[in-house]
Write a structure and sequence with these properties.
about 500 residues, Alpha-Beta Plaits, 4 domains, 23 helices, about 45% helix
Length: about 500
């Protein structure tokens, strides 16, 4: 019987955890009946837990799950990156597809990731939560949930439409389309805004494999840096029998993290992801892995005192820059947040831009979109409602149910139906009854609240074309009843800017 190698065990572990991660992404759909929490991996992410709670000055018991991957490297070193991390698995797969062109020794730039980690944690101390820009788990969730699944569905849907158009089992194919669409997305093919930059970031990280294997993990990943710092006191480590070692160099050539020192004996523990590849290629069996005594576990830190001070100074300047960069008030009036959102300063500290709320929105990439600069530099990629694309479904409260950091608080459906996202106002220079003296009450017909927040006044006018008097029904808003759901703005029949829009005036936020 063939012996199962450590490589097989590692790949099995990587595939298992990647599929588990992918299943959490698939759970974020409508109707929301998850058997696996979509937020699971983000709750276990220690960088998310630290940055969000430090910046927001709060404690959430669910983030105690992150202690698993804080304690784990104390025993097994940085094995999380080599055996569990789903983004690491994607990068390993990319490494096989992209021919590496190693253009130099990158060992000197490895401390960059630690420098970034310190900056993100320092920013959190100053109340600025920006770790989501480079935390691999939110990046992967956002990329898979918003882009990859949407693009994959577009390709499959196009192929199936081709089958239907040429008459190949059209009824069967259309049934498959309906089932697939209903499972992956709430209503229809999603249409996301401001997707270019997040997608470019994702493919740039994968493309770094062109420089060297796992270049992102070696040099830039702040979560990997956190794991590496803790792993310096890890019990499990690589050992080399110097008498058996022939200095053939195969181990160092095989090491995807460049963790083996030039003497082939010593190992930089903060870089070793315990892939065990060096052990497998060693021709003399000089390499082994095992537990070691405490006095042999200590290694030097990655960041010098000067670099640490530099990271702190960078964070201080960055926090000041963010504080002084105010959003354009002409644009923020229409930057509507999801129902149940906490107050804006707290929201910006909690939101990790995973886009789980954007993916699960019941209008399939219609209502909730990723913002760009509508809410300033601090609000980049946070969810905002774009009502011209889609409305906030009256019978949906999923965004609050799925948010991993409770930047959007979970609300009961009845409570959500009463909370105000903003207030609708008519733009009389655009609205058909006001501008053209023609009847149009589409907005009133679609208003979901009872009694309706859009009322109608009748006005007698003289029509110069017909020479007769007639009645025009002029709609108006009752601000006490309007919840700002935006269906009136979406359904307005005008092309371009609607004759009615929702502004933030009167919005209700949750105080936590």
């Amino acid at each position: 019987m063939k012996k199962i190698t450590s490589k097989t065990w590692r790949k099995t572990s990587q595939i298992f955890f990647f599929l588990l991660f992918f299943l959490t992404v698939l759970q974020a759909t409508y109707p929301f009946e998850p058997w696996l929490p979509p937020e699971l991996f983000l709750w276990f992410d220690p960088l998310v837990a630290l940055a969000v709670q430090i910046a927001g000055r709060f404690f959430a018991p669910v983030f105690l799950l992150s202690l698993v991957f804080i304690l784990f490297p104390m025993i097994f070193g940085r094995a999380f990156c080599g055996w569990i991390c789903p983004f690491g698995t994607v990068i390993d797969a990319t490494d096989r597809l992209i021919s590496q062109k190693k253009i130099g020794d990158f060992r000197k730039v490895r401390p960059i990731k630690t420098f970034l980690l310190v900056i993100f944690l320092m920013l959190a101390l100053f109340g600025v939560q920006y770790s989501w820009t480079m935390d691999p788990l939110p990046i992967l969730w956002r990329s898979l949930g918003v882009f990859v699944l949407s693009f994959g569905f577009l390709i499959v849907d196009t192929i199936l439409n081709g089958f239907v158009s040429v008459g190949i089992f059209p009824n069967v194919v259309m049934g498959i389309q309906d089932s697939l669409s209903g499972y992956l997305f709430p209503v229809d093919m999603p249409d996301f805004e401001n997707l270019a930059i997040p997608v470019l970031l994702f493919f740039t990280i994968l493309g770094l494999s062109r420089i060297a294997r796992r270049f992102w993990c070696r040099t830039l990943c702040p979560l990997g840096a956190l794991q590496g710092i803790i792993s310096k006191i890890g019990l499990f480590r690589r050992k080399v029998d110097s008498e058996k070692c022939t200095a053939c160099g195969l181990c160092r050539k095989k090491c995807k993290m460049d963790a083996i020192e030039p003497d082939f004996i010593k190992t930089e523990k903060s870089e070793c992801v315990m892939c065990l590849s060096c052990k497998e290629v060693c021709p003399t069996n000089a390499i082994s892995f095992g537990f070691d005594s405490p006095e042999k576990r200590q290694t030097s830190v990655d960041l010098s005192r000067r670099s640490f001070i530099g990271a702190g100074a960078t964070a201080l300047v960055g926090a000041g820059l963010f504080a002084m960069s105010k959003p354009d008030p002409n644009r923020t009036s229409e930057a509507i947040r999801p129902p149940g959102t906490v107050i804006e300063p707290e929201f910006l500290k909690r939101c990790i831009r995973c886009e789980e709320c954007v993916r699960i929105c019941a209008t399939s990439g219609g209502c909730l979109q990723m913002s760009l600069l509508e809410t300033g530099m601090m609000g980049i990629w946070t969810p905002v409602a774009k009502f011209r694309s889609g409305h906030c479904e009256f019978n949906c409260n999923l965004c609050g149910q799925i948010c991993p950091t409770k930047a959007i608080q979970p609300l009961e459906l009845k409570e959500k139906q009463e909370i105000r996202m903003g207030t609708a106002i008519f733009i009389q220079d655009r609205c058909i009854p006001y501008r053209l003296n023609d009847n149009c009450i589409v907005c009133e017909e679609h208003c979901p609240v009872s009694p309706k927040a859009i009322r109608v006044d009748e006005k007698e006018i003289f029509d110069p074309i017909s020479g007769q008097k007639r009645i025009v029904r002029l709609p108006y808003i009752d601000p006490e009843l309007c919840i700002g759901c935006g269906i009136c703005e979406e359904k307005c029949p005008l092309e371009g800017k609607a004759g009615i829009c929702v502004v933030r005036e009167g919005e209700e936020r949750i105080q936590v």
